[in-house]
Write a structure and sequence with these properties.
single chain, 2 helices, mainly alpha, 67% helix
């Protein structure tokens, strides 16, 4: 009985962890997130020839 409880807990934990991981991946790489990623990727470079 005790092994059944531990095994069930580990199986449920694994399912929750995989589901959470898949949700994070979907949130990060879904097609509608592309514009947000492109906006965050813009790095403001200093102009060339600008001396300090």
């Amino acid at each position: 009985m005790f092994q059944f409880i531990i095994s069930s807990f580990l199986n449920v934990w694994l399912v929750i962890a995989v589901t959470l991981f898949a949700g994070i991946l979907w949130h990060a790489f879904r097609p509608s997130a592309r514009s947000a990623m492109e906006l965050h990727a813009l790095i403001p470079f200093e102009e060339e020839g600008c001396e300090r």
